[in-house]
Amino acid sequence: MKLSKRIVPAALALSVLSAGLVTFGEPLNADAANNKAVAAAENEQVAKITNIKPLNTMTLQIIFNQPLAAADVDLNNLDAIKKHFIFNGDLEIVNVPRLMTGSKSTYIVPVTFQEDDFIYTLSYKEQRNKVFEGTDEKVFVRNVEQVTNDTFTLEAFQEDGVVDYANIIEAYRAGRGNLAFSLDRQNRDASGKRFDIISSLRDRYVTVKTSEGEEFVANYVPFTQAADGRQASQFRLPAGQTLKPGVTYRVYSQWAEIDVKSFVAKEIAPFVLQSVKAIDDKSFELQLTNDPQSDLLAGRSVELKGNDGSTLQAQYRYSSRKGAVGIFDLANGGTLKANVSYTVVPLNNWATATNVVLQGK
Asked: Which of 1, 103, 159, 163 is deepest in the core (most CB within 10 A)?
């Protein structure tokens, strides 16, 4: 009896399958077709490179068939974005692509230095390689100028046909006011004047040689390349080094063709800190005795010595200066303690301070 109960259902199942009333192939085929359709749709959504044009040795102008996704131009995703651009010849991007003002899908892409006439390939997000010829053309910079005892600027001018990318990209347009404008496909403005473009100077440097035979590297100070209405990027000597009055300094660059590349260092007095006021337990306002007229606070730090024996460090918040006042943020997760008084001490002698005390809150 038990045996017949097992055989009959089995025979019924075989009969139904044979008759085609139940099939297992169709759902599997439907899933495969659906997955293929999804993959095709996703592929269509990925931007594809249509043209690559080297503008100078550190800058590419890349046209895509559609705008890049927000995540693919987000500075917070820079490490991941770098992996989207695969070059040969050890070339790589150094900052996120920036959409040009007035364009739908033309981007300024800063890269490490190209070699002239080298044939480069670029694969974006594992797509087919695009080919372009490298250039060693440099950006024209008119002169160098000392601005503090350890910092100098390289200044370029639009009159010379050079524009900082901050003035011609969509991401910064709202904050640039009347400095913002657009360029056409040949990088000409409304009057027909053609411009070379200074792309992001993130991680850039210059080499400095002295009349005394010394040589060292000066690194770019972030967020200074298009500040205060000028195209005067700041470069700073290694920590602890200063420009010696009377010594001639000559500046060389792999990315800039500097017209007047030498200057004689002079004595420039450090800033003087006047007062300090807490904003909250993680930041404070620091006031100088005089308005520096440009963002010479960039990259500066101070130490806070508490009357309880504790010490903290704080760094200038880039682009926060208003007149003689700049905002500093505590580093490494530090916080101000209530009822503790902190003496402010500038690090690396960029300023002097006498009895400048911050009260914790």
From this structure: 163
Is the entire prediction scored with pTM above 0.90? no
Q: How confident is the model over 153-162, as pLDDT tens digits?
A: 999 999 999 9
Task: Locate 346 and state its tokens.
Answer: 């500038």
**Full 3-state SS string of 178-202:** HHCCCCCCCCECCCCCECEEECCCC
**Token pair listed for 269:** 């007095």
Backbone φ, ψ for residue 41 (5° rounding): -65, -45
Residue 115 lies in a domain: yes
User: 109-166: per-residue pLDDT in tens?
Assistant: 999 999 999 999 999 999 999 999 999 999 999 999 999 999 999 999 999 999 999 9
Q: Does residue 182 lie within any of the structural domains?
A: no
CB 114 within 8 A of CB 135: yes
